[in-house]
Amino acid sequence: MADQKEDVKGEEKEELHEAAGAGSKTTLDEVEGAVGGKDTKSSFHKGEDEYDDDDDDDEDDGYEGEDKEGLVDMLQNFLMTKLHLGGRDDEPPVLESVTVDAIVEYMKSDKCKNIITMAGAGISTSAGIPDFRSPESGLYANLASSNLPYPEAIFHINFFKSNPKPFFALAKELYPGTFDPTPCHLFIKLLHDKGLLLRHYTQNIDTLEYVAGVPVEKMVEAHGTFRTSHCLSCQKSYDQDWMKDQIFADKIPTCTDCNDLVKPDIIFFGESLPSEFFAHMQDDFPKCDLLIIMGTSLTVQPFASLIDNVPARCPRLLINREKVGSADPMTALLHGLFGGGGLLLDSPNNKRDVAMLGDCDPSVLQLIDKLGWKEDFEKLQPASKGAKKED
Fold this sequence. Notes:
alpha/beta; about 35% helix; six-stranded parallel beta sheet; 9 strands; three-stranded antiparallel beta sheet
């Protein structure tokens, strides 16, 4: 098994080297870690103990605490006021204040017409689907004791080709259709029903947005989907019912034409992101007038960088257990000059970013109540239970 692990990793490195030299299509090994995502601070090729923790109190970290913050404030004030580089002081903020109530009033106004939602595993955990990175309950933690060279190997295309059995055993346990949509999924459907949803971008493969009734054309499934499958050799297409029958019969799905492996169209490590991700990203985000981010760590790329693709004055609402995607003080300074750099939740210059911290479902229900949408929301719940969507 150790030799197998080294072979897989060696092939990964060779793929990356070739991609960098030839300018080939971006793969998830380079930017994003397939289903579970790749942490921007580490790589699944190495153990955590091989990395220096940037948050530790190293002797040469430079300015610390209040001294660093004071320096940033001084530089920012100088550049903004003395050099007049801010450029937006004469424009009134879109939000009356950076509060949830201000977001609610904005959503009720005619200024808010094109909402983009971004979601990760955190919107599905209340349905019984584990996230990937929780230390004790996450999927990778549970796989650590399995007979795998490393937990993430179960989602690597090279390992899958050599040994698909672990993946299909896991797929049977987590197969879409055995879970019901959460309030977060129904909230996305409600935004669609209200005519406000421009697009929903998801890192999840559980298809619960689809079960909730969000139209396929309104979704970008950044990590692919279980709804369709293809043969790895001849590309013959198979529907979800066929794949489900194979998985629940404990069979390794093979093509009826060429007898090669058939894989659900979820994105594994070593595979390119769906082309529609990039196509819709370029069209959607310039039109966005409210970005809602739910249940994601914002640690994987390019998904995490989507938050900086909206217009500079577009409000952004984070619904999450903890603050994520925040710019550090120096990046916040550059954000004021050039745009980009993450959420400005703790910056004195924040005029558009709001956080609702805690579990996603209670936060969404609170938002629905403040919007006066509770009656419409409750109408969605019975229809979602066990509903089977048609393409």
